[in-house]
Task: inverse folding
């Protein structure tokens, strides 16, 4: 009997010891994890009061103007312009810093209420109060947010909390007003530096090679109706012009601020040089925005685009992704992906890094292009398939090439969108220009 009792106490004592050890071990694991989590999830800095933040004060006016199309058409537009500046399309690109206290003052010169929404921004105030949807007497929604009446003004404020690429646009009768041109790009730069897309060193880009490609589609019949003071039938929306940065191809290739496109200041050509580990290691930064209501599939001939951000959020999962059974610091997982054709839904934005690699490394002397590439030589307009070289072009072909640079079309993959009006080739297309190393002299 006594042995049995000793035996049972022995097991009980052992069980208690095991339990104590287990508790000790798991609390150690928890403590270690907490330390690992704290190390991988730095506490955000305490929020600053409005007054303590760097201020970004922006003054816009909602006004009218015209844009030109390559087929000779002149289209009536609405747009946000800098308070002291001329009408432009698209509206000015706004660039602020992460953490800025942003104030956007809007004065309305249009014959109907106009507002601004900032998709992707939170805590937006209108005249100091949280923005509210606006309803008419019958309870119908007439504006997504507080608007400025005709001849009136309104002030929006928000903290630009997250770096990324965003759209700003009217939230009043958006189908009509965004169609008319009341939209622009908003870029929030990260705290770690102006040539990073996000607070992640992997999103570094070449400081001189940052490009915005803002896509949109236009139905001139709607613009004509508004110009004539008639209410357009938005259900009959049928676009016939497709633009990048407010221009149709080939105007997309005209220089920024081209005098013959007075209201369309933004160029769309993407210019880069071949990747080189030492002389040219950094990618170009491509900010894609679809301000239209149609989905657009945008194809980057020449090489793929590495998508690193979507709708102002980095394509990485949060650095706080830790698991109780994994006691090590986890880097943010890279969810970026390579795309050769980027499909953007209405209002979507993408950030992409672009590197062009000279896979062939053609050199007339040491690595001459095969004879069959003569046609390519013609296509680049340089008469040579080798980067940085020019050759003789077939008779009657005009040399449009500057110094042996390459060109690749970047364009919508919907053929219908590659026209101007109902006529000639044009539309939603621009060029990737790959200069030879060091650029053109
Ligand atoms: Cu193509």
Result:
């Amino acid at each position: 009997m006594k042995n049995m009792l000793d035996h049972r106490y022995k097991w009980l004592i052992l069980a208690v010891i095991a339990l104590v050890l287990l508790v000790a071990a798991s609390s150690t694991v928890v403590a270690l994890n907490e330390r690992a989590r704290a190390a991988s999830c730095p506490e955000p800095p305490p929020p600053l009061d409005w007054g303590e933040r760097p201020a970004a004060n922006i003054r816009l006016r909602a006004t009218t103007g015209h844009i030109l199309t390559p087929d000779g058409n002149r289209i009536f537009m609405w747009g946000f312009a800098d308070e002291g500046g001329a009408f432009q399309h698209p509206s000015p690109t706004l660039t602020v810093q992460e953490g800025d206290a942003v104030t956007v003052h809007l004065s309305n010169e249009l014959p109907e209420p106009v507002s601004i929404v900032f998709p992707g921004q939170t805590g937006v105030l209108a005249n100091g109060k949280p923005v509210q949807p606006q309803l008419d007497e019958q309870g119908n929604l007439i504006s997504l947010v507080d608007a400025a009446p005709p001849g009136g003004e309104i002030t929006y404020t928000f903290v630009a909390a997250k770096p990324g690429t965003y759209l700003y646009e009217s939230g009043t009768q958006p189908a009509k007003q965004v169609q008319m041109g009341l939209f622009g790009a908003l870029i929030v730069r990260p705290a770690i530096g102006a040539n990073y897309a996000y607070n992640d060193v992997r999103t570094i880009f070449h400081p001189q090679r940052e490009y915005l490609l803002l896509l949109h589609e236009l139905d001139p019949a709607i613009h004509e109706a508004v110009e004539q003071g008639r209410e357009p039938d938005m259900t009959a929306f049928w676009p016939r012009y497709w633009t990048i940065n407010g221009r149709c191809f080939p105007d997309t290739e005209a220089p920024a601020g081209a005098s013959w496109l007075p209201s369309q200041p933004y160029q769309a050509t993407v210019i880069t040089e071949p990747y080189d580990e030492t002389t040219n290691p950094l990618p170009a930064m491509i900010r894609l925005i679809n301000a239209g209501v149609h989905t657009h599939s945008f194809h980057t001939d020449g090489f793929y685009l590495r998508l690193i951000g979507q709708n102002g959020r980095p394509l990485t999962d949060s650095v706080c992704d830790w698991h109780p059974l994994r006691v090590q610091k986890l880097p943010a997982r890279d969810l970026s992906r390579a795309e050769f054709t980027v499909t953007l839904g209405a209002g979507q934005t993408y950030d992409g890094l672009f590197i062009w690699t000279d896979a062939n490394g053609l050199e007339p002397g040491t690595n001459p292009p095969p004879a069959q590439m003569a046609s390519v030589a013609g296509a680049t307009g340089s008469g040579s398939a080798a980067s940085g070289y020019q050759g003789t072009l077939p008779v009657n072909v005009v040399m449009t090439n500057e110094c042996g640079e390459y060109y690749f079309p970047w364009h919508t993959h919907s053929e219908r969108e590659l026209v101007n009006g109902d006529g000639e080739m044009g539309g939603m297309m621009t060029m990737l220009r790959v200069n030879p190393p060091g650029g053109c002299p």
Remarks:
- The two ends are 103 Å apart (CA to CA).
- Residues 1-43 form one domain.
